[in-house]
Amino acid sequence: MQLFLFLALAIVAIAAAIGVLVSKNAVYSALALLVNFAVLAVMYIMLHAQFVAVVQVIVYAGAIVVLFLFVIMLIGTETSLLAARGRSRQITTIIALVAGVAFLISAAYVAVAGTVSADQGRVPGDGAVQAIGEALFTQYLLPFELASVLLLVAMIGAVVLARKQKSDEV
Amino acid sequence: MDQVPTTYYLILSAIIFTIGAVGVLVRRNMLVIFMCVEMMLNAVNLTLIALALQFGQLTGQIFAFMVMAVAAAEVAIGLAIVIAVVRHRDTTNVDDINLLRG
What we know:
A: mainly alpha; 76% helix
């Protein structure tokens, strides 16, 4: 039953990822990205990571995709799909990357399937808010605080970068 | 209850990561390249969370959480740069943005 669900979700996730890749219009890319994020959130719940699933929906599907759509609407986009450079170069790139995914899959099999036992463990507290909070505020307190500094710097940086320059205003 | 093997999640993650990498290399629209980078980060998150369940530890989930924080910061800065570039050069095509090319 879970395997069925996984396979269905995996197909949707890969289709959405390809949709991001091939859509001519950037708006459709953003919407396909939204589908991809939502499917991954469902997978996180299947993996006993409830809190991360909720954060995924709020941060990625909520904030990041909306930010993308906002910028697309703000600046408009060209619809040129691929580079102007040679077609054969593109094909070479794609072949190289297909070989790359074959390598990654075989690496996943060899490195992980061999060493990892078939039965999965149990995440403490099923990844609920309480367990995550306890870990974040005890063992991982420093990274948590540093993340807040990072977000503050990013916020200030975004404001500075997107601000109109003085010379433009005249 | 039958469980989905962790390896399946890792394979799915590898596939999504590679699609994202293809997107970064093949697409020329700055915004779409950003979206593909986000997709790659998400694929890595899936790996971390699948392995968190495999080894029965929360560390992977905390890592995924931190990756999300960094991704949010990256998107904010990246889109600000996109807006700044569009203001100066009026294009989102990365082939046209070659001022720093030697």
